[in-house]
Amino acid sequence: MLSTSDNPFNPWTEFDQWRTWDEQAEYHTLSYLARITRSSHELSELDESQAIDIAIQEILDENITGMYVRIPMPAELVAA
């Protein structure tokens, strides 16, 4: 998941709080990610996931201020 370095919430486990904080800070990270993602309704779930991952990497590559960070999936969710 993509987040900002100053957001105190984990988007994997505290999504509602994370999103509220993000929008109150006027970052609108989800909207930004949606604008960058090259997507289509015709993509498979795997291809859609890959498109999002590519968009996250593009944002991180252009992230000269260090504002954006990738939040890995917590181990307890990987095993689920």
What can you see in these coordinates?
The longest helix has 17 residues, at 45-61. It is globular, with a radius of gyration of 13 Å. A two-stranded antiparallel ribbon has the order 1-2. It has one domain (2-74). The chain has 80 residues and is mostly helical. The model has no long low-confidence stretch (mean pLDDT 93). The protein is built from four helices and two strands; from the N terminus they run E-H-H-H-E-H.
Could you list some keywords that capture this structure?
80 residues, mainly alpha
Describe the structure concisely for a colleague.
The protein has 80 residues and is mostly helical. The chain has helices at 15-24, 29-36, 45-61, 75-78; strands at residues 2-4, 68-70.
Number of domains: 1
User: How many DSSP H or I helices?
Assistant: 4
Order of helices and strands: EHHHEH
- Tally the beta strands: 2
The Rg value, from CA coordinates, equals 13 Å
Strand order of the largest sheet: 1-2
* Biggest sheet statistics: 2 strands, antiparallel
Helical content band: 40-55%
Approximate strand percentage: 5-15%
**Oligomeric state of shown chains:** single chain
Q: Tell me, briefly, the overall form.
A: globular
**N-end to C-end Cα span:** 17 Å
